[in-house]
Design a protein that fits this description.
10% helix; mainly beta; 2 helices; 137 residues; 9 strands; three-stranded mixed β-sheet; Immunoglobulin-like
């Protein structure tokens, strides 16, 4: 009797596994760190270094949401598929209103202190041991 009960429990399992790969539409390379979430569920994961992912979702989940900073959000219907490959499109969205403050992020309008802007070329001037030389640029 215990074996019969075990088979009935696994027979009614409501989870399914979806796998796939996320690529950059510009060059077809795999994208690491893309967020993959199941809409209406707490299930989620991120893509690996080659852009591959694996997520276990309930049968009630019908849409996977793919997101990555600088790329358009992709919402893909699952239907009866077990493998979904996604091509992410670069967007022109700006992060101009977001400021990184060392221990988190904030919107510019919410800050009361001063803000300094540093571009990537400022970091290419050689190693710095103190922050003072950065202020002189």
């Amino acid at each position: 009797m215990p074996c019969l009960l075990l088979f009935s429990i696994t027979g009614f399992s409501q989870d399914r596994v979806i796998t796939g790969r996320v690529i950059d539409s510009r060059d077809g390379s795999g994208m690491a760190g893309v967020s993959v979430a199941a809409r209406g569920s707490a299930a989620g994961t991120q893509t690996g270094v080659d852009g591959s992912y694996r997520i276990s979702v309930g049968r009630n989940v019908t849409v996977l949401v793919f997101s990555f900073v600088g790329f358009g959000l992709q919402e893909i219907s699952i239907n009866d598929r077990t493998s979904i490959d996604v091509s992410m499109e670069l967007t022109n969205a700006s992060l101009g209103e977001i400021v990184v403050i060392g221990y988190g992020t904030a919107r510019k309008k919410d800050l009361t202190g001063s803000i300094a802007q540093i571009s990537s070329k400022d970091f290419q001037k050689g190693p710095q041991t103190t922050p003072e030389p950065i202020n002189s640029w």
